[in-house]
C-alpha cells in the first residue's frame, strides 16, 4: 500500500499494475513528458488505464474515497500540452490517458476512431496508411483529447469549421462509472455539449470522426520584416473577408520574438496552406507581394509531415491568453504596436535571449458558424456573431525561471487588457474567448452566450447529477463556475 488513500483505493480496485508513484522508476520520466514546465507537477500517484473499462474502474474508485475528505483532487491528462493546471495536480491523483492512444479506421463507416492520449502527428501518420485524414491539430505534439473538447482550429476550417464539428460519436465514462456513446441519435445533448464544452461531463475515451481522403498540402511559410506591417495587416483583413471564396486555403499569420530563429526583435510570419495541394492559390496573391526575409518555397507535404515539423519546443515556462475582435485594420495595427512595445519591455527586463513570444491573428469569419450548425452545432456561440473576426492569441515562453514567467505574464495580460479596451472603443469587441488558448483567469464558457451556457448546465446536471466532476476534477473551465 502507498499510504495515500486514493492511490490505495485504485490498487484495491484491481489497478495495481496501472499505478505508479514517485518511488517507481517510470514516474519522473513521465512527469517530464508534460510539455510545459508549469504543468510538471508531482501527484501522489499516476493511474494509467489501458481500456475504457479501466477508466471506469479508476473513476468510481477515486470518487468513492471518503467523499473527497481531505484536501486532494483528481486531474485528467490526455496529451499533456496545456499551460494551466488543467491536466495535472500536486495534491491528488492524475488519471493519465496516454495509453489510450489508439488510431483506427473503419472503411465501412468512414470513421476514424481516436484515443484521447494520441498525438496528432501520430494520428495523421497512422491514418495515412489507410489513405484518409481527419482535420485536427496543426502542432503535431498536441494531444487529441483537449484539442477536440475545446473546439479545434485546423487547416480545413474554410470548409469544415472546427475539428469538433467532425466528431460523430464520443465514448464517455460518466462519474457513476457508466459508459455511454453520445451521438446525434443517442444522448444528443451530451454529444453537442462536448463540442467545445471542455472537461465538464465525464472522461472521453474515444472520438469517432468522419474522415476525409488523404491529400498532400501545398505548404509554405513567409517571413517578413515588421517594416511591412501595414501590408501584412491589410493581407490578413482581406483574406478573412474573402475566406469563403478561397475556402480550401488556410492562413495562419503571427508576429514573434525568437532570437534563436531570427536576430530581429520582432518578425511577421504567415503560414499559408492550400488543402487541395494547389500551388500559387490566388487567395495568397496579396501575401506574395510582401518581400520575404527568407525564401518562401511552397512545398507538397503530407499533413503528417506538416504536423511533425510544426511542434513548439517543450521544457519552458509558458503562458497564453486570448481575445476575439472584429476583423479591423485599426485593431490589428494596435495589436502589432502593443506587441512591439511588450517585446521591448521584456528585452529590458529579461534579456532578448531569455524569452520567446508568438502572437497569432487567426481568421474567424461568420460563415464558420453556418458550417457548424449544419454539422449539429457546437457550444462556441458563433451563430450570434455579426461580423468577421480575429482570434487574437498571445503565447509566451520563458527560459529562465518561474519568477520571470510571473513578470512576463503580468505584462502580457496587461497588453491584452489594453487591446480589449481599444477594440471596445472602436466598436470591435467580440464575445468569444477561445478555450484552447485561454488563460486560467479568463471565462471561455461564459463567452459562449446565455443559451449555450444554459444548455451546458442542463447537460451537466443530467449526466453528472451529483456534481462530482465539477467538485472533484477542478482543472479546466467548469460550467459550475459560470455566473448564473
What does this structure look like?
- By secondary structure, the chain is of the alpha+beta class.
- Helix content is 31%, strand content 22%.
- It has 15 helices and 18 strands.
- The protein has a seven-stranded antiparallel β-sheet with strand order 15-12-14-13-17-18-16.
- A hairpin with a 4-residue loop joins strand 5 and strand 6.
- Helix 8 packs across helix 11.
- It is globular, with a radius of gyration of 22 Å.
Q: Tags for this entry?
A:
484 residues; alpha+beta; seven-stranded antiparallel beta sheet; five-stranded antiparallel beta sheet; 18 strands; 31% helix; globular
Question: What fraction strand?
Answer: 15-25%
Separation of the first and last Cα atoms: 44 Å
Shape: globular
Main β-sheet, spatial strand arrangement: 15-12-14-13-17-18-16
Radius of gyration: 22 Å
How much helical structure, as a percent, in the residues?
Answer: 25-40%
Q: What is the number of beta strands?
A: 18
Sheet with the most strands, sense and barrel status: 7 strands, antiparallel
Low-confidence stretches: none
| Oligomerization state | single chain
Number of H- or I-type helical stretches: 15
What is the structural class? alpha+beta
- What integer is the average pLDDT? 97
Amino acid at each position: 500500500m502507498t499510504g495515500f488513500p486514493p492511490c490505495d483505493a485504485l490498487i484495491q480496485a484491481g489497478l495495481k499494475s496501472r499505478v505508479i508513484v514517485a518511488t517507481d522508476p517510470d514516474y519522473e520520466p513521465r512527469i517530464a513528458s508534460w510539455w510545459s514546465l508549469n504543468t510538471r507537477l508531482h501527484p501522489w500517484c499516476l493511474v494509467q488505464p489501458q481500456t475504457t473499462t479501466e477508466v471506469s474502474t479508476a473513476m468510481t474508485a477515486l470518487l468513492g474515497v471518503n467523499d473527497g475528505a481531505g484536501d486532494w483532487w483528481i486531474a485528467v491528462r490526455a496529451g499533456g500540452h496545456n499551460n494551466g493546471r488543467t491536466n495535472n495536480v500536486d495534491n491528488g491523483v492524475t488519471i493519465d490517458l496516454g495509453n489510450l492512444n489508439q488510431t483506427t479506421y473503419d472503411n465501412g463507416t468512414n470513421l476514424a476512431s481516436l484515443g484521447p492520449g494520441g498525438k496528432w502527428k501520430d494520428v495523421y501518420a497512422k491514418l495515412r496508411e489507410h489513405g484518409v485524414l481527419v482535420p485536427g491539430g496543426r502542432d503535431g505534439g498536441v494531444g487529441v483529447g483537449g484539442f477536440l473538447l475545446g473546439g479545434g482550429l485546423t487547416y480545413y476550417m474554410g470548409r469544415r469549421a472546427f475539428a469538433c464539428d467532425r466528431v460523430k460519436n464520443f465514448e464517455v465514462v460518466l462519474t457513476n462509472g457508466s459508459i455511454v456513446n453520445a451521438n446525434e441519435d443517442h444522448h444528443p445533448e451530451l454529444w453537442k455539449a462536448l463540442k467545445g464544452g471542455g472537461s465538464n461531463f465525464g472522461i472521453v475515451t474515444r472520438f469517432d470522426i468522419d474522415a476525409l481522403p488523404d491529400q498532400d498540402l501545398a505548404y509554405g511559410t513567409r517571413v517578413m520584416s515588421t517594416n511591412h506591417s501595414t501590408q501584412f495587416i491589410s493581407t490578413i483583413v482581406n483574406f478573412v473577408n474573402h475566406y469563403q471564396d478561397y475556402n480550401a486555403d488556410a492562413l495562419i499569420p503571427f508576429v514573434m520574438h525568437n532570437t534563436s530563429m531570427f536576430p530581429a526583435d520582432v518578425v511577421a510570419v504567415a503560414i499559408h496552406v492550400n488543402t487541395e495541394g494547389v500551388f500559387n492559390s490566388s487567395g495568397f496573391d496579396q501575401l506574395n507581394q510582401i518581400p520575404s526575409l527568407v525564401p518562401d518555397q511552397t512545398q507538397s507535404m503530407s499533413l503528417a509531415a506538416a504536423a511533425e515539423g510544426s511542434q513548439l519546443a517543450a521544457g519552458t515556462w509558458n503562458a497564453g491568453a486570448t481575445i476575439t475582435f472584429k476583423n479591423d485594420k485599426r485593431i490589428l495595427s494596435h495589436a502589432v504596436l502593443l506587441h512591439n512595445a511588450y517585446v521591448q519591455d521584456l528585452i529590458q527586463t529579461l534579456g532578448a535571449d531569455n524569452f520567446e513570444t508568438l502572437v497569432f491573428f487567426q481568421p474567424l469569419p461568420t460563415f464558420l458558424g453556418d458550417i457548424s450548425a449544419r454539422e449539429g452545432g457546437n457550444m462556441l456561440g458563433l451563430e450570434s456573431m455579426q461580423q468577421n473576426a480575429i482570434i487574437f492569441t498571445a503565447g509566451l515562453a520563458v527560459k529562465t525561471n518561474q519568477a520571470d514567467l510571473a513578470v512576463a505574464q503580468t505584462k502580457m495580460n496587461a497588453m491584452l487588457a489594453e487591446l480589449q479596451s481599444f477594440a471596445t472603443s472602436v466598436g470591435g469587441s467580440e464575445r468569444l474567448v477561445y478555450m484552447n488558448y485561454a488563460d486560467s483567469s479568463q471565462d471561455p464558457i461564459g463567452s459562449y452566450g446565455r443559451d449555450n451556457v444554459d444548455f451546458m448546465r442542463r447537460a451537466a446536471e443530467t449526466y453528472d447529477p451529483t456534481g462530482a466532476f465539477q467538485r472533484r476534477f477542478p482543472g479546466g473551465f467548469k460550467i459550475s463556475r459560470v455566473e448564473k
